[in-house]
Amino acid sequence: MTSTARRPIIAGNWKMHYTHLEAIQVVQKLSYLLRKDDYEVTDVVLCPSLTSLRTIQTTLEADKIPIELGAQNVFWEESGAFTGEVSAPMLAKLNVHYVIIGHSERRQIFGETDEMVNKKLKAVQKFLMTPIVCVGETLEEREAGETAARLSGQVRGAFAGIKADAAAECVVAYEPIWAIGTGRNATAEDAGTTIGGIRATLAELYGETTAEQIRIQYGGSVKPGNIAELMARPEIDGALVGGASLDPDDFAKIICFER
Ligand code: PGA
Questions:
Q1: Is 20 one of the annotated active-site residues of the chain?
Q2: What is the mean pLDDT of the chain?
Q3: 177 to 96, 138, 169: CA distances (angstroms)
Q4: What fold does the segment set 9-33+42-255 form as a domain?
Q5: Mean of the pLDDT values across residues 123-131?
Q6: Catalytic residue flag (residue 103)
Q7: Residue 79 C-alpha to ligand 1 middle, in angstroms?
Q8: pTM score of the predicted model
Q9: CA-CA distance, 122 to 128, in Å (whole number)?
Q10: Closest approach atom of ligand 1 to CA 179
Q11: CA-to-CA distance for 8 and 53, rounded, in angstroms?
């Protein structure tokens, strides 16, 4: 298995942090720390909160910063009486390129199911954005030896009814729930092996060629100190970074890790 054809993607998930005013400062500092070469070898994505999307969009465009904009969530209907929700066409109009769907916090706190993730995936692709589909097992599932079955179920649920050419465009993020925000990351070897299993499920669904095109990130306590080891694994195509993406110095170090 080789990752040479897959372009690395490092995405920051700010979760519910930073007002739009704080967000501008962080983005400006981050862009000051990154060099042209960094963007040439890696897709750099920032997923701020909804209230910061428009502000960050204008900052990126005005200063010609090649960071791509991502959203943390979306609703699958295009418009209507859905108080509090935001649709895919609304995000697309803000030049949002990536949308995180099925994050474990959405699944656990807001009751998002595989079926909802599937509807969101379709809505995101309809408006020509790229879904970052999160999958991951709990500590109990891991200890019960159910990791592979859980991940396979989540992948099959998310991709139900999606054709191979559309699947090839998606990004998957493997985020073991026990590693998120805990400081306890999966070892690179473990993450690589599990991601290999996710790719095997994708190969069962779509064949080897398509599965080889799909980028799979690791997420869960990624830091400047562990990124190089994770990225050295051929199965791992990037990272979805929570806590460490809030600090521009740390996030810049993750993006320009020692290759
Ligand atoms: P973390 O979060 O890097 O803070 O562990 C990752 C995520 O939830 O995407």
A1: no
A2: 96
A3: 26, 5, 25
A4: TIM Barrel (3.20.20)
A5: 98
A6: yes
A7: 30
A8: 0.96
A9: 10
A10: 5
A11: 23
CA 135–ligand 1 middle distance (angstroms): 13
For ligand 1, whether the C-beta of 180 sits within 6 Å is: yes
Q: Select which of 103, 105, 112, 137 is catalytic.
A: 103
Tell me which long-range contacts 49-55 makes (C-beta under 8 A, separation of at least 24). Answer: 49/14, 49/15, 49/16, 49/17, 49/18, 49/23, 50/86, 51/19, 51/20, 52/14, 52/18, 52/19, 52/20, 52/23, 53/91, 53/94, 53/96, 54/20, 54/94, 55/20, 55/23, 55/24
pLDDT digits (tens, 9 = 90+) for 174-221: 999 999 988 888 899 999 999 999 999 999 999 999 999 999 999 999
Q: Which of 103, 221, 226, 255 to mutate to test the pocket of ligand 1 (most atoms within 8 A of CB)?
A: 221
Residue 238 Cβ < 6 Å to ligand 1: no
Q: Categorize the per-residue pLDDT at 3 as very low, low, confident or very high, splitting at 50, 70 and 90.
A: very low
**Alpha carbon of 23 to those of 33, 208, 248: distances in Å?**
15, 40, 11
Nearest Cα residue to atom 9 of ligand 1: 242
The whole-angstrom separation of Cα 245 and Cα 26 is: 10
Write down the domain spans for the chain: 9-33+42-255
CA distance 88 to 126: 8
Q: Which residue reads 């891991």 in tokens?
A: 142
